[in-house]
Amino acid sequence: MSTALVIGVGNADRGDDAAGLLVARRVRALAGERCRVVECSGGLDGLLEQWAPDDHVVVVDAVPGDHPGRWHRVEGPVAESLAAPASSHGFGVGEAIALARSLDALPQSLVVYAVEGSDFRPGAAVAAGILDALDGVAAQVIAEAEAR
Questions:
Q1: What DSSP assignment string belongs to 10-46?
Q2: What are the angstrom distances between the C-alpha of 139 and each of 28, 47, 76, 127, 142?
Q3: Which residues, 6+ apart, have CB-to-CB distance to 141 below 8 Å?
Q4: Which of 119, 121, 142, 147 is the most exposed place for a label (fewest CB within 10 A)?
Q5: pLDDT score for 48
Q6: Could you tell me where the DSSP H helices lie in the chain?
Q7: Would you say 41 and 10 are in contact if contact means Cβ atoms under 8 Å apart?
Q8: Is 1.20.1510.10 the CATH classification of the domain at 1-10+34-117+140-148?
Q9: Cβ–Cβ contacts within 10 Å for residue 69, how many?
Q10: How far is residue 16's CA from residue 18's CA, in Å, rounded to a whole number?
């Protein structure tokens, strides 16, 4: 059985947009070698280069929401509708998934954990709700990755 790939998406300098990166770092610390963990903080068009067709992928990203730290689990086509924070990536996770589908480049399985955030301004602090949710989201991501 292959090791699942966990991709944390975000920008550490844009407040709540750091959620995906922070979860990925927590997964790396908790799971060790049980998960391959990658951080993606550049353009998400490169997201497709991270996975192979036979991979089991879990992506974690921040989405705009009213309850920082609340998270949602979405799969495949539903994930294409995810809204990215304005201008933080330029090219959102949903768009990257849609592009991968159109290119027949989706991995074997793809799940997205979307963590709500409300402040994506440059230099903003990460919301306390997101920091409080890190261990719980990381545990869910690890369980998801190990179930594959």
A1: --TTSGGGGHHHHHHHHHHHHHGGGEEEEEE-S-GGG
A2: 11, 23, 21, 20, 5
A3: 6, 23, 27, 35, 58, 60, 113
A4: 147
A5: 80
A6: 19-31, 76-79, 93-102, 128-147
A7: yes
A8: no
A9: 22
A10: 5
d(CA 47, CA 101) in angstroms, rounded, equals 13
Cβ–Cβ under 8 Å, residues 91 and 124: no
Where are the domains positioned within the chain?
1-10+34-117+140-148
Q: Angle at CA 138, nearest 5°, toward 76 and 23?
A: 85
Output the pTM of the full model: 0.90
Q: Residues, the chain, total?
A: 148
The predicted-structure confidence for 5-27, as pLDDT tens digits, reads as follows 999 999 999 999 999 999 999 99
Cα→Cα distances 95→12, 82, 144, Å: 21, 8, 23
Span 40-51, average pLDDT: 76
Q: How far is the C-alpha of 65 from the C-alpha of 110, rounded, in Å?
A: 22
